[in-house]
Structure formats: structure tokens, C-alpha cells
UniProtKB/TrEMBL annotation:
Record keywords: Membrane, Transmembrane, Transmembrane helix
Domain of life: Bacteria
Membrane topology: Multi-pass membrane protein
Transmembrane segments: 56-77, 97-119, 131-151, 157-179, 191-211, 217-238, 271-294, 306-328, 340-359, 365-382, 403-422, 428-447
Main location: membrane
Protein name per its UniProtKB record: MFS transporter
Family annotation (Pfam families): MFS_1
Source organism (scientific name): Streptacidiphilus cavernicola
InterPro entries xref list: MFS, MFS_dom, MFS_trans_sf, Sugar_transporter_CS
Length: 453
């Protein structure tokens, strides 16, 4: 993420990464880059705990709403607003139409985020390498959301949604890079916890917000656009990064870039297992919850009354998610352990999905929201900081996090596609065992990580 105007600046990007006492798997920063940077504070260089205050506190206070503005968009659109709009346009083939729109957008998102990270890593400007993309991406994404509001056909909707995905992925990649760029390792737990809080509130609370715009879908898109533009611009303005105009950069190698889509389990095993664990858990979670509207309509049998219950499920899940995020982040920092908490939280998600599969009822859906919300919240509070500790190189934080973030964002936008295939073949009940199996596989993948406790 960028860093814009503030009188007292944080240490520049590469130096902050050095402060963070990055794991041994990270390559040392290039000499030509570090020679131009402000020296790290002694406490940080010595690995002492860094207090979150001053510029670091300001960064935290801006990052939380910036992340919230992005994840509320991912929470509201794929799970509520887009299915509602598809249902209004083509009610007779809503499952197939939603799968088509989602698949096209998901493919674009998969390519856009690591590409955006690579471009951001190489950007040289007086505002640093992150801020230009945060601001421009949010503005373009906002215009594309207006395009979705005006769409009256499936093809138009698919094009607009694809453009939204590309634009906001050019925001998400540099936004994610702020944590390893500028936050010391000893402070990443609180950043990850509050960042996880924002993302979980966005993902779950977005469903509530989306349901509140059920009768005014276009207005909902415009509200989401405005919120993201304001929050991301404030982040850039109040957390200014140093100019990097004079910093050298490696030439872009298309072949090397394409290789980043392959995460080698032999060269970077911990990076691979962390990616796989997140991908499996998120896919299992969103394959079910991303279909909440249609599950309530057709599996539980609520029909037109399902929209109001989507909001109720969102609120219940949010009430369970928030304390889990806080507890997970604090416990993780206190114990200095990440893997066991990720494993337990993934297992909780799987356990929650069993409930409505065994007993299809509205009460079971409420219970699922509580158990899954708590597990998913705890996972989100610990998972992000675990990711920052297994990245392969300090010189490509945004690109590597862009690849890793595919594991979080892709399942959210691809869930209707996955769900559509499952529903077509096995019916709505088939969503639950698939979600359970993927969540458990994600939990076990994390235990293959060796460099993090």
C-alpha cells in the first residue's frame, strides 16, 4: 500500500523491511537501494519490540478502514448484489448465468493481482511505488462499479464486473505490501489482527450491507465505490512514502514473471504450503457462504424472504468473527505461534459447515454462521502475519503477496462458479461436504510449514 503526506514519515520501504528482521528465507536488499535510505532505528535493528505509536500508529489507523473499504466490496458484491442482479436479469438460469459472470471475472483477477504487484514493485515516482496505484485503481474501479449499476444484460454485467476486478486488484496488491514493506515483525501481530478484523468485517458485514441495498442495487454499487475512493485516498495522503525516483530497478522479465504463478514446493516449500492452506480454506468457506442467498431460497426453502435472512446471517457471523479476530491476534503474539491457531480455526470452519448439511433449517444456518464466523475470524487474524514470514524475497514483496492474495480473493469471486458446478451435479446439499473437505485439507497444509512455529 502507498504512503502519502504526513509531516513525520515512516522509514522508507526497503529499510522498513530490514527493520522487520525478515526471516532467513528472504534475500538481502540490493546495495544500491539501501544506500539511499534512512538508517533503521536502533531498537528495530536489534530486534526489540517496537511500540505502535507516532507514524506507525497513524499508518495502522489508516490501513484498517482502507482494508475495510476493499473487503466490504468483495463481501457485498459476489455474495449478494451480483446474485440479485443476475436473478433480476435472468431468473430462469440464475445459477448458470452467475457462474459465467463469475468465471470471467475470476480469471481476470487471477492474472491482475500478481501483475499489479510486479508493476507496483517497479514503479518509481515522487509518491513512492504504492500510492499511485492505490488512488488510480480506486478511481477506475469506482467508475467500473457505476458501469455495473447501468448494466441490463449478462454480457454487459460480465464485462463491467471483470473491469471492477482488474481495477481493484491493482489496489489490493500494493495495499497488501504495506505490511511487510513498513511494519517491523514485532508489530505485525497487531497490524495483522486489525487488518484481519477489517477484512472479516468487510467480508461478512458486506453481506449485510449488500442485503440492505437489495431493492436499490445500483445505489449499492455507487456507495461502495465512494467508500473505497475516500478511504484509499486518505491512506495515501496521510501516510506519505519517500520519493523513489532515483532508485534503480531490475528490468521486467516476462518469463520470470510467468514463473511466479508457479509456487515451487521444492524451492520455497513454506511459501507453497501457506498459499495452499489459505487457498483451500477460503475456497471451502466461500463455496458455501458465497451461495448463502440461493441456499436460503432453494435449500432451506425461504423463497423471496431469503434476502432479509442473508443480512441476519451476516450480523450473526460478524458478532462471532470480531471477538475471534481480537483473541486470535493477541494469543498469536503472546505465544509466538501461528500454525496451531491456523489449524484450529480451519477445523472450526469445517465443523460449522457440518451443521446445516446434517439438519437443513434456518436455525442450523444461524448456528453455522456462529461457528464458522468464529473460526474464520481467528484464521484471518493469524494467517496474514504468517504469510509475511514465508515470502521468498524482500525485493518483490508486492508481487509475492499479490500471488498469495490470489488464495484469498480468487475463492471469493470464483465461489459462484464452483458452487454452480456443485449444485448442478449434486444439488445444494453437495456444497457442504466439499466445503468441509477443503477446509480440513487447508488446516493440514499449514503443518507442513517449517520456518514458522
Amino acid at each position: 500500500m502507498p504512503d502519502s503526506a504526513a509531516p513525520a514519515q515512516l522509514p522508507p520501504v526497503q529499510d522498513a523491511a530490514q527493520l522487520a528482521a525478515a526471516p532467513a528465507t528472504h534475500a538481502a536488499p540490493a546495495a544500491h537501494a539501501t544506500a539511499q535510505l534512512t538508517p533503521a532505528p536502533p531498537a528495530a535493528r536489534e530486534g526489540e519490540r517496537v511500540k505502535v505509536r507516532g507514524p506507525l500508529l497513524r499508518l495502522l489507523l489508516c490501513l484498517v478502514p482502507a482494508n475495510l473499504s476493499l473487503y466490504v466490496l468483495w463481501g457485498a458484491i459476489p455474495t449478494v448484489l451480483l446474485p440479485l442482479q443476475v436473478n433480476a436479469i435472468d431468473p430462469g438460469d440464475k445459477v448458470g448465468a452467475l457462474a459465467t459472470v463469475s468465471t470471467v471475472g475470476a480469471v481476470a483477477a487471477m492474472v491482475a493481482q500478481p501483475l499489479a504487484g510486479a508493476v507496483s514493485d517497479r514503479t518509481r515516482s515522487r509518491f513512492g511505488r504504492r500510492a499511485p496505484w492505490l488512488v488510480a485503481g480506486s478511481l477506475i474501479g469506482g467508475l467500473c462499479l457505476v458501469g455495473m449499476a447501468l448494466a441490463n444484460g449478462i454480457v454487459q454485467l460480465a464485462i463491467a464486473w471483470t473491469c471492477v476486478q482488474i481495477a481493484y486488484n491493482f489496489v489490493q496488491a500494493p495495499l497488501s505490501a504495506i505490511l511487510p514493506d513498513r511494519v517491523p515483525v514485532s508489530a505485525r501481530g497487531i497490524f495483522s489482527a486489525l487488518g484481519g478484523l477489517a477484512s472479516m468485517i468487510g467480508a461478512v458485514g458486506g453481506q449485510v450491507l449488500g442485503a440492505s441495498f437489495a431493492q436499490h442495487i445500483g445505489a449499492g454499487y455507487c456507495a461502495l465505490a465512494g467508500f473505497s475512493i475516500v478511504m484509499l485516498t486518505l491512506l495515501a495522503v496521510f501516510n506519505r512514502d519517500a520519493s523513489n525516483l532515483g532508485t534503480e530497478r531490475e528490468p521486467f522479465n516476462p518469463r520470470a514473471f510467468l514463473r511466479t504463478f508457479w509456487i515451487s514446493p521444492t524451492r520455497h516449500p513454506d511459501y507453497f504450503w501457506a498459499f495452499l492452506g489459505r487457498l483451500l480454506l477460503y475456497t471451502g468457506y466461500f463455496a458455501v457462504t458465497g451461495y448463502n442467498l440461493y441456499l436460503l431460497q432453494d435449500y432451506i426453502g425461504l423463497g423471496p424472504g431469503a434476502t432479509a435472512q442473508v443480512a441476519a446471517l451476516g450480523l450473526i457471523g460478524l458478532a462471532a468473527t470480531v471477538p475471534a479476530i481480537v483473541i486470535g491476534g493477541v494469543v498469536s503474539d503472546r505465544l509466538g505461534r501461528r500454525k496451531i491457531l491456523v489449524f484450529i480455526s480451519s477445523a472450526l470452519v469445517a465443523a460449522g459447515l457440518v451443521i446445516p448439511w446434517a439438519v437443513p433449517s434456518l436455525t442450523s444456518m444461524y448456528l453455522m454462521a456462529i461457528v464458522v464466523g468464529f473460526g474464520f475470524g481467528a484464521f484471518g487474524s493469524v494467517d496474514q502475519v504468517l504469510m509475511t514470514q514465508v515470502l521468498p524475497s524482500e525485493e518483490s514483496f508486492a508481487k509475492d503477496l499479490g500471488v498469495v492474495n490470489i488464495a484469498a480473493s480468487l475463492p471469493q469471486v470464483l465461489a459462484p462458479t464452483v458452487g454452480g458446478v456443485i449444485v448442478t451435479v449434486f444439488g445444494y446439499a453437495g456444497l457442504f461436504p466439499v466445503g468441509i473437505g477443503l477446509s480440513l485439507l487447508g488446516a493440514f497444509a499449514v503443518f507442513r510449514i517449517r520456518s514458522v512455529r
